[in-house]
Design goal:
Radius of gyration: 24 Å
Number of strands: 14
Helix content: 25-40%
Number of domains: 2
Structural class: alpha/beta
Largest sheet: 9 strands, mixed
Oligomer: single chain
Number of helices: 12
Order of helices and strands: HHEEEHEHHHEHEEHEEEHEEHEHEH
Distance between the termini: 24 Å
CATH superfamily of the largest domain: Zn peptidases
Bound molecules: zinc ion
């Protein structure tokens, strides 16, 4: 059987051009949404889309859409794409790898004059990272009709410019944000290729990860209130040291995540101790806890365990009190089994090794799963690094992911279901 194949040189060229559009040359890729770098990259993507005959437009949230007609042009559309914004001082692959995968699939279909039954839309989304305005997953949430005008008014960048203002200045009308919403009945499927951003594929020598589930995330904010005292005159057994209590708690949180199983992870990524002086016993500590798991019950197990530990801490030292607030709770998202089967079969047919995985990071695909059938694949990240200038994926490994995705997109787009 003859397979359509992508061309690695074109993939490499696209990625190299896009990586040059950065606000921080020499210090990785910084490409915030609705910035000069966004504009340059946007023009490049649109030009490439037009070169392979796509009908190109931008939706009211700033996503670039390149549409390729189907034999049955009224049939629901198959979408493929990712985002092209970046974090501050990030790498060249997080996001653009999936956008370039879409561009390359469009080129392969065009040069082989493949006519699919369903129309296909090649998509490049913005503000997935929330790098400029916070929030994130913006383009896909807008497609799901989940971005309100209020959000555009309240989310500001570090210079105090609201998202609504930045969009208007860039040439989009924020009042029309609601029009970015897509009708689920007009969607057949959404496919995304992304770099793994972790070490598993490289460590196992497997070419492509097929995501089964995007983990759920719960973020807590914990405050421990003790008592600030003189560090020289207060005996050890008469202190209410909030930082010592926090240290004890943090050790336990790691153990709780391990005993929850199912790859559950928990991270205390931010901590502050006050008053914050060498000669004062810390009276107040605030810390965050980020808990992720593919099973909600495992997340709940850790949360309950943390509450139990806090109560024990207080019993041991009644001079310490605590408060715990839930700041974020996103349920795990299961991707479409039928699409997972198609991706797996495509890997087998092409001799590309695959592995079912979970995604520990959020992706646009997870939002799109609320609208349509979704497939998400990972390609290996060198040393598991991401969100840093060292982020790298071998171009030939990326090509394998693109080929597998191409086959799966075709398998779905060729059949009217
Ligand atoms: Zn990303």
């Amino acid at each position: 059987m003859l397979f359509l194949e992508s061309k690695v040189q074109r993939i490499q060229e696209d990625l190299e051009v896009m990586a040059r559009h950065t606000a921080t040359p020499g210090q990785g890729v910084t490409r915030f949404s609705f910035s000069d770098e966004d504009r340059l990259t946007r023009e490049y993507i649109k030009e490439r889309m037009k070169q392979c005959g796509l009908m190109v437009y931008e939706d009211t949230a700033g996503a670039i859409v390149g549409r390729r007609s189907g034999k049955n042009d009224q049939a629901p559309v198959v979408m493929v794409g990712s985002h092209f914004d970046s974090v501050k001082n990030g790498g060249p692959f997080d996001g653009p790898a999936g956008v370039v995968a879409a561009l390359e699939i469009a080129r392969v279909l065009e040069e082989n004059q493949v006519m699919t039954e369903h129309p296909i839309e090649f998509i490049a989304l913005v503000e997935e990272e929330g790098g400029r305005f916070g929030g994130g997953l913006f383009g896909s949430r807008a497609m799901a009709g989940k971005v309100s005008m209020e959000e555009l008014m309240t989310y500001n960048d570090k210079d105090g410019i609201s998202m609504a203002h930045a969009m208007a200045k860039f040439g989009f009308d924020p009042d029309l944000i609601g029009s970015a919403a897509r009708d689920p009945r007009q969607l057949r499927a959404f496919f995304e290729l992304h770099i793994e951003q972790g070490p598993i594929l490289e460590a196992t020598g497997i070419s492509v990860g097929i995501v089964e589930i995007v983990v759920g995330i719960t973020q807590l904010e914990i405050t421990l209130q003790g008592r600030p005292d003189h560090a020289g005159t207060t005996p050890m057994d008469m202190r209410a040291d909030a930082l010592v209590a926090a240290a004890d708690l943090i050790m336990k949180i790691g153990r709780l995540a391990k005993s929850a199983g199912n790859g559950t992870v928990a991270t205390v990524g931010k901590i502050s101790a006050r008053p914050g002086a060498a000669n004062i016993v810390p009276g107040n500590v605030e810390c965050t806890v980020d808990i992720r798991s593919k099973k909600e019950e495992n997340i709940n197990f850790v949360v309950r365990g943390i509450e139990r530990e806090l109560k024990l801490l207080m019993r041991r030292n009644p001079a310490i009190s605590y408060s715990m607030m839930c700041k974020l709770a996103i349920a795990p998202v299961r991707l479409t089994p039928r699409i997972i089967d198609i991706l797996t079969a495509e890997g087998n047919d092409r001799g590309i090794s695959t592995k079912l995985m979970q995604s520990g990071a959020g992706h646009d695909a997870m939002v799109m799963a609320g609208l349509t059938e979704v497939g998400l694949i990972f390609v290996p990240s060198k040393s598991g690094r991401s969100h840093c200038p060292e982020e790298w994926t071998d171009y030939l490994q990326l090509k394998q992911g693109v080929d597998l995705l191409l086959g799966a997109v075709l398998a779905v787009a060729q059949k009217i279901t």
